[in-house]
Amino acid sequence: MQKKIQQLGILIGGYQGIAIAFSGGVDSAFLAAMAKKYMKGNVVLLTLDSDFQSDKDTEHAIYMAGKIGLPHEIISFDPWSDKALVKNEKNRCYICKNKGFALLCAAADRWGISTLAHGVNTDDMSDYRPGLKAAQEQEIVSPLVDAGMSKVEIRQASREMGLETWNMPSQSCLATRIPYGECLTREKIMQIKHAEDYLQLLGFEGVRVRHHGPLARIECKAEDIEKISSPAFRSKISKALQAHGFKFVSLDLEGYASGRMNRML
After folding, report:
1. What SS3 state is found at 251?
2. Which residues, listed in sequence order, are joined to residue 47 by a DSSP beta bridge?
3. What's the pLDDT at 265?
4. CA 25, CA 13: separation in Å to the nearest integer?
5. Which of 27, 76, 105, 166 meets the CB 3.0–4.6 Å disulfide criterion with 119?
6. Is 200 exposed, middle or buried (0-12, 13-18, 19+ CB in 10 A)?
7. How are beta strands 215-219 and 17-21 bridged, if at all?
8. Alpha-carbon span 13 to 38, nearest angstrom
9. How far apart, in Å, do the first and last CA atoms of the chain sit?
10. 135: Cβ contacts below 8 Å, ≥ 6 apart
11. Pairing of strands 42-49, 17-21
């Protein structure tokens, strides 16, 4: 892993300047910290803010940018203006990323930086991620992939660097909670936001609420399944999610798995 980190440092040090698509999560925080350490030119962190992200995610990105100590800009992104995007077909992620990267590239240009990087890692390459095609088309660089770093290695290296994100649960776009082919609406996104915020308040980190019309399907960590389905939580969770518009509340017995909705393809 140390050889990979050294290679990453060489890659980053070769840029004249770099803008990083910054969520404040495990990958982008590690990339930002490495850029601060090895970059000789300008570094700026750019965060997209839209209804598809939790408010807590944006707040966390601001917090982590301050902790790392790099310039940071929030860019507003309105996903509802694109009819093809809200149709939520299997290329939704490509359309969304294409528009989002265009906004980030424009922001990077305003900072006088020609290179935009994102924090995709080698594990991301094995799933269905049409957003990666958008990144390639817009020549977004992926230093973590080029250095051959996996998620486990990034977490380990982050821990050794003292980054508090090392054990942070994975983040993801809220639109991924809605099955392909079902139109995205603000109402659905808000239902998901409120439901997940409530579950996180109860102490269930890394939880997902998949939106199947009147049914909420909860995915939590496998080790939390017994707790979340216990009498102490079952009734209050059902009532809370029903108050947010769901008619039925279910628990996925497999537990959380990234990219679960891709099974529908």
Report:
1. strand
2. 74
3. 65
4. 22
5. 27
6. middle
7. unpaired
8. 5
9. 35
10. 97, 101, 118, 120, 142
11. parallel
CA 200 to CA 192: how far, in whole Å?
12
Q: How far is CA 22 from CA 26, 59, 63, 73, in A?
A: 10, 12, 12, 9
Positive or negative, the CA dihedral 91, 96, 99, 102 is: negative
Give the bridge partners for 73, in sequence order: 46
Q: What pLDDT sits at residue 224? A: 96
Of the candidates 82, 84, 62, which has an alpha carbon nearest to the alpha carbon of residue 73? 62
Q: What is the spatial distance between Cα 8 and Cα 18, in angstroms, rounded to a whole number?
A: 14
Task: Please report, as a single letter, which amino acid is at residue 110.
Answer: R
Query: Is the alpha carbon torsion for 232, 237, 242, 247 positive or negative?
Result: negative
Contacts of 42 (CB under 8 A, 6+ apart): 17, 18, 111, 112, 113
Backbone angles phi, psi at 168, to 5 degrees: -70, 140
Instruction: State residue 36 phi and psi, 5-degree precision.
Output: -60, -35
| pLDDT given for residue 181 in this prediction | 95
- The answer to whether the beta carbons of residues 104 and 202 sit under 8 Å apart is no
pLDDT along the chain (265 residues), means of 10: 93 94 97 93 95 94 97 97 95 94 97 96 83 91 96 97 94 94 97 96 95 97 95 95 97 86 72
Q: Which residues contact 176 (CB under 8 A, 6 or more apart)?
A: 259, 261
CA angle 186, 48, 148 (to 5 degrees): 120
Q: What single letter denotes the amino acid at residue 80?
A: W
